[in-house]
């Protein structure tokens, strides 16, 4: 039976840093703040040289493809059949550019019988920390659920992007039923797969969100006071925070 796999990949900017070393782009453009007016450069920049770099040197071009290529070599049966991939981009011109390059490169570096890749922009990611995490969590959760409905084996590639965002994507994916996470271990520069972790949100949170438990019951069940729950963002006013509500 041909395996059907879903890959959700967080996107960073290592492609640009490595491309700068090859002279494809000025090094000052590799890392920009979201408000930097030079972000506009990426709206008109041709992706072709970057795609060529990614296809010819996938393990050197960026963290994302380095992880995928190494994983495909190690778990070749998983990646030899039907692969569907989504790159989760930040809401910046820079992030969207990198994601578009990776979208055009991925299937050319895999040997899958069938392969399709796409990009989804997490609205606010890179500009609004909490709002961006909310959107990223929603996208990842929805895609992992859909992959499972399609009979796909869902995995997350979490090497790219800033650690808070990639970590939150991993948590959302595990809650939705992802089977594992591919990651490049810094100590020996090789790919590892973190196995499935059956994460679940506390049932008390679900009951409180549904109006079936009081705030006092929630506080007692979690063993912390209500002030703490508001400070860490579990509660907003008298209800569950938007972040948690997306994952319930």
Characterization of this structure:
With 248 residues, this protein is α/β, with parallel strands linked by helices. The protein is 45% helix and 18% strand. It contains 11 helices and 8 strands. Helix 2 packs across helix 5 and helix 6 runs parallel beside helix 7. The longest helix has 21 residues. It is globular and about 60 Å long. 40% of the residues are buried.
Any chance you could write out the topology, listing elements then pairs?
Blueprint: E1 4-10, H1 14-21, H2 48-56, H3 58-61, H4 63-74, E2 82-89, H5 93-109, E3 114-121, H6 129-149, E4 153-157, H7 163-176, E5 180-185, E6 190-195, H8 203-209, H9 215-222, H10 226-231, E7 235-236, E8 239-240, H11 242-247
Parallel strand pairs: 1-2, 1-4, 2-3, 4-5
Antiparallel strand pairs: 5-6, 7-8
Helix pairs in contact: 2-5, 6-7
Query: Which structural category fits the helices and strands?
Result: alpha/beta
Approximate shape: globular
Biggest β-sheet, characterized?
Answer: 6 strands, mixed
Q: Output the helix-strand order.
A: EHHHHEHEHEHEEHHHEEH
Task: Give the low-pLDDT segments.
Answer: none
SS summary, helix count:
11
Q: What's the total count of β strands?
A: 8
């Amino acid at each position: 039976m041909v395996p059907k796999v879903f890959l959700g990949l967080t996107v960073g900017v290592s492609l640009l840093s490595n491309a700068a070393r090859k002279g494809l782009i000025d090094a000052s453009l590799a890392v920009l703040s979201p408000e930097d007016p030079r972000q506009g450069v990426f709206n008109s920049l041709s992706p072709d040289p970057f795609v060529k770099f990614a296809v010819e040197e996938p393990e050197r071009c960026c963290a994302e493809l380095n992880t995928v290529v190494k994983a495909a070599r190690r778990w070749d049966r998983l990646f030899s059949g039907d692969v569907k991939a989504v790159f989760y981009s930040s809401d910046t011109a820079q992030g969207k550019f990198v994601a578009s390059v990776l979208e055009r490169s991925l299937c050319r570096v895999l040997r899958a019988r069938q392969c399709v890749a796409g990009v989804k922009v997490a609205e606010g990611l890179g500009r609004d920390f909490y709002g961006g995490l909310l959107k990223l969590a929603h996208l990842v959760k929805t895609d992992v659920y859909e992959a499972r409905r399609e009979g796909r084996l869902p995995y997350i590639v979490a090497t790219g992007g800033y650690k808070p965002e990639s970590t939150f994507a991993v948590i959302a994916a595990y809650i939705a039923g992802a089977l594992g996470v591919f990651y490049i271990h810094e100590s020996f520069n090789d790919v590892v797969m973190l196995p499935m972790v059956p994460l679940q949100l506390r049932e008390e949170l679900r009951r409180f969100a549904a109006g079936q438990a009081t705030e006092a019951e929630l506080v007692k069940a979690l063993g912390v006071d209500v002030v703490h729950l508001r400070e860490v963002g579990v509660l907003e006013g008298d209800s569950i925070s938007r972040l948690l509500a997306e994952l319930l």
